[in-house]
Write a structure and sequence with these properties.
The structure holds two protein chains of two kinds.
Chain A (H helix, E strand, L loop, with lengths): L6 H21 L3 H25 L4 H31 L13
Chain B lengths: L1 H20 L7 H21 L3 H26 L11 H25 L14 H9 L3 H21 L6
The chains are: A mainly alpha, B mainly alpha.
C-alpha cells in the first residue's frame, strides 16, 4: 500500500538529488557536466526549502528560494564566462588538464 | 491522486538526475543538459504539488529557459568532442561513492530520528503570486534590491571576462 505523502517524502527526494549532484561533482571530469551537477545540488536545496515552507505554513522559505534562483542565474553566467575564458587559454574543458596550480 | 502524481514526478526527477550524472549510453554534455532540463521541469511539477505555483513558473522560465539555453550555447560554442571513455580512476570513484553513501546515511538517519512530518496540521499556505509579491516588496525589500545589484555586478563581470585580451 502507498503511504500518504508527507514532508519526509519530499525531503528524501531532495536528499537523493543532492547526493546525485555531489556524485557528479566528484566523479565527472568534464567541467560543464560538473557545473550541471552543481545546479542539481542547488535545485535539491530549493526543493527542501519549498517543502518545509509548505508543511510549516510559512511563506518565507519560498521567498528564499526565489533569491536562490536569482543568485544561481548570476552564478551560472559568471561561471560559464570563466569556463569560456579558460577554454580560450587552454583549449580544454577537462578537469584533469587544468592542473597548473598543482605543486 | 496527488500522492500518485508525487511518486510519478519524484521518479522522473531522480531518473533524469541519474541520467545527467551517469548516462550509460552517451558521454556527450548535450545529453546531460537535455536531461537536466527534464529534471528541472519535473521538479517544477513537484513545486506545483507543494502549491508553490509562482516558483514552479519561475523554475521553468529561469532554469529551463534562460540558464539551460546559456549552458547549451556554451557547449555549442566550445565545440566539445564526445568525452572519450578514459579509465575511471578507482580512487576517485571509491571516494565519491563512500562520501555519497555517508551523506545519504546522515540524511536518512536524521530524518528517521527527528520525524519532521509528525504533528503538523494540514498545510494551508499557498505560494501564489500575490502573497509572495507582497512579501517580496515589504519585508524583503532590501534583499530584493541587493539581488538586483548582484545581477548588475554579474553582468559587468561577464562582459569583462569575455573580452578578447583578458588581463
Amino acid at each position: 500500500m502507498i503511504m500518504h505523502v508527507g514532508l519526509e517524502h519530499y525531503l528524501i527526494v531532495s536528499a537523493l538529488l543532492f547526493a546525485l549532484g555531489l556524485l557528479g561533482v566528484i566523479t565527472r571530469r568534464n567541467l560543464l557536466v560538473v557545473y550541471m551537477s552543481l545546479e542539481l545540488m542547488l535545485n535539491s536545496a530549493n526543493l527542501a526549502l519549498v517543502s518545509f515552507s509548505r508543511f510549516n505554513d510559512n511563506l518565507n522559505g519560498q521567498v528564499l528560494v526565489f533569491f536562490i534562483i536569482t543568485v544561481a542565474a548570476a552564478e551560472v553566467a559568471v561561471g560559464l564566462a570563466l569556463i569560456v575564458a579558460l577554454y580560450r587559454k587552454r583549449q580544454s574543458a577537462h578537469v584533469e588538464d587544468l592542473t597548473s596550480m598543482k605543486l | 491522486m496527488q500522492d500518485l502524481l508525487f511518486y510519478i514526478f519524484a521518479f522522473l526527477t531522480l531518473a533524469c538526475g541519474v541520467l545527467v550524472v551517469a548516462n550509460p549510453f552517451s558521454r556527450n554534455p548535450v545529453t546531460s543538459a537535455m536531461f537536466l532540463v527534464l529534471t528541472i521541469i519535473s521538479m517544477a511539477g513537484l513545486f506545483v504539488l507543494l502549491h508553490a505555483f509562482f516558483l514552479a513558473a519561475v523554475q521553468v522560465l529561469v532554469y529551463a529557459g534562460a540558464v539551460m539555453v546559456l549552458f547549451l550555447f556554451v557547449i555549442m560554442l566550445l565545440d566539445l568532442k564526445e568525452e572519450e571513455r578514459r579509465k575511471v580512476k578507482k580512487l576517485g570513484l571509491v571516494a565519491g561513492l563512500i562520501s555519497i553513501g555517508a551523506i545519504v546515511g546522515i540524511f536518512v538517519k536524521s530524518l528517521l530520528a527527528t520525524q519532521p512530518g509528525q504533528n503538523l496540521q494540514a498545510p494551508t499556505v499557498e505560494g501564489a503570486t500575490i502573497p509572495l509579491g507582497k512579501m517580496l516588496f515589504t519585508s524583503y525589500l532590501l534583499p530584493f534590491e541587493i539581488v538586483s545589484l548582484l545581477l548588475l555586478v554579474a553582468m559587468v563581470g561577464v562582459i569583462l571576462l569575455s573580452k578578447k585580451d583578458l588581463k
